[in-house]
Amino acid sequence: DRTNLSPYSQQWNFTVQRELVQDLSMEVGYVGTKGNRLIQRFDSNAPLPGPGNINARRPVTSLAVPGLDYLVTPLADTFRREFSANSNYHAMQVKVEKRMSGGLNLLASYVWSKTISDARGGADAGGTSAVGVQDRTNLKAEKALADEHFPHRFVMSSNYDVPWGRGRKFLSDMPRWADFIIGQWAVGGILTFSSGRRVNVDVQGDPPNVGGGAFPRPNMVYGQNPILSADKRSLSRWFNTDAFERQPNFTFGNAPRNAVQAPGLKNLDLAIYKMFPVSETKVFQLRGEFFNATNTPFFGAPGSTLGLAQFGVINSAADARIVQIGLKFNF
Q1: Rounded to an integer, what distance in angstroms lies between the CA atom of residue 68 and that of residue 74?
Q2: Lowest mean pLDDT, pick from 8-22, 124-138, 144-158
Q3: Residue 261 and residue 197 in contact, taking contact as beta carbons nearer than 8 Å
Q4: CB–CB of 312/238 below 8 Å?
Q5: Does the first or last residue of the chain, that is N or C, have fewer Cβ atoms within 10 Å of its Cβ?
Q6: What are the tens digits of pLDDT across the range 217-233?
């Protein structure tokens, strides 16, 4: 796009903060963001659906090279980047914070939001599966829940100095040998619950016969909800595969972009610390860190290509529990 319009964003928010008790405060707010003139990428030389040779049906089939008696033909995909996409984000955000007192500090936040866009971006990359513009003549059909749509997200982080040991609230006069074993402990962690990422459903092959520059989607079956309830979901059928069907040849499907959702995240990262004071300014710290401490599986996205055996099937997961131990010397 030679006009090269600059993208810009508009942001607004309204937040109320209240101190509940000493050292404990709460914030509740509404946050909105609108992205304008975002970059969009699509095959500007894709033909309309139809039978026959794809390149012969493209809007532009040949190109004369200026200054040379040379003609380039046939032409295939011609990708255009233009600043025509938009996005919007609306959220309720809640934050509770306990400032350090009594050896405990805590920060918890919850976001309930909705994010909509009509493009993935300039590279058609970043989501759980390949997705781009299906029909260059109908960019409005790309408006859907965005890759960045996580309707629910809760994160809590905390750190607690266990209140026994020399210099602490309880047993502050214990012998040094006892403090070496049971004193100077601390624990911390990060707890995360989050909705899963959006998954775009596509279809095997090229039913509209428009070439590899387009990303055809299947048809939705009338009356079928693609989202299954929790008691009906399984790793072998994560979403309602009956809600999609291959469209007739030489047509685009009517399924929206990002029609289904991958599994969410439930994760606890935990840390346990033990301090060994040498002097007032020199301390050894023994650290035990447990990533995904509960060993709760974080499953990958389901297969999203209609026509393949793995359609609707989840066969991957993130790392299991990871434990690491370290020793640090502060001076």
Answers
A1: 17
A2: 124-138
A3: yes
A4: yes
A5: C
A6: 999 999 999 999 999 99
- Give me the amino acid identity at 86: N
pLDDT digit string, tens, across residues 295-317 = 999 999 999 999 999 999 999 99
Please tell me the distance from the alpha carbon of residue 316 to that of residue 303, in angstroms, as a whole number.
10
Q: Any bridge partners for residue 153, and if so which? A: 111, 194
d(CA 11, CA 35): 9
Tell me which amino acid residue 293 is: A
d(CA 218, CA 305): 9
Contact yes or no for 206/222 (Cβ under 8 A):
no
Structure token pair of residue 102 = 């009594």
